[in-house]
Amino acid sequence: xxxxxxxxxxxxxxxxxxxxxxxxxxxxxxxxxxxxxxxxxxxxxxxxxxxxxxxxxxxxxxxxxxxxxxxxxxxxxxxxxxxxxxxxxxxxxxxxxxxxxxxxxxxxxxxxxxxxxxxxxxxxxxxxxxxxxxxxxxxxxxxxxxxxxxxxxxxxxxxxxxxxxxxxxxxxxxxxxxxxxxxxxxxxxxxxxxxxxxxxxxxxxxxxxxxxxxxxxxxxxxxxxxxxxxxxxxxxxxxxxxxxxxxxxxxxxxxxxxxxxxxxxxxxxxxxxxxxxxxxxxxxxxxxxxxxxxxxxxxxxxxxxx
Length: 306
Ligand SMILES: Cc1ncc(COP(=O)(O)O)c(C=O)c1O
Fold this sequence. Notes:
Shape: globular
Number of strands: 17
CATH topology of the largest domain: D-amino Acid Aminotransferase, Chain A, domain 2
CATH superfamily of the largest domain: D-amino Acid Aminotransferase, subunit A, domain 2
Mean pLDDT: 96
Distance between the termini: 27 Å
Number of helices: 8
Structural class: alpha+beta
Bound molecules: pyridoxal-5'-phosphate
CATH architecture of the largest domain: Alpha-Beta Barrel
CATH class of the largest domain: Alpha Beta
Low-confidence stretches: none
Radius of gyration: 19 Å
């Protein structure tokens, strides 16, 4: 996909034209992956444009900075305001929002703390991440030969630029095998997550998802789905998941800001359930899309209107 340009990018405190939001080649981030970012969606609702789970995303950005000792020169309130300002300036009705804080020019030391921290907010108009049909028909995936990081190597809870090299290996391998996405196992061989999504499975009437200790990113959509599933009366169990449960699950689906709720129809060529979107996945999608599109009451305060 090429990025559809927007008019403005918020860059270090002001809106600048897209082509002028550039970074020097000596910036620390370019050499060592020293950035923290978020992926957020704004939806067109019946009452205007609304950002989904803005508070949670900004808090995760701040937490990622805390883990990597990055002193962000903006408060949560300032970042939220800047995000809304950028969407307004670009006139989007719906969009994908990418805030990124990174270490700029300040030397090549591996202790990066004397590099300035810069913040940019990019907004683009963007459709379905795993393809337009994926939401209904589901995707074919494969278990990756690449594992997610061991807990004492990289902190999985931080959405940190350099860590996405692991995700790139998982995604490229999956595509080379003709799959839409890969599922990585954790260091102990239990199911972890996709390259950019959390995973859920339905088995014998319960819903399972890997725990934070399986080297997953604590997804915002994951939390939303746990909330909606519990509200619908399902028990959601955050437990270690052995690989073989993927093959015998009744339903499997990914969650993520980009992927939203995407059914998985096969894993390593093994058909999941009857190969169609399962009833619980469908029910959760209906509930999710009704809220984000403003057709149902936003009972958890997930939407921030422009
Ligand atoms: C590695 C990884 N796991 C899970 C997710 C899903 O998180 P969220 O629902 O907050 O988008 C993402 C996307 O941000 C991700 O990059």
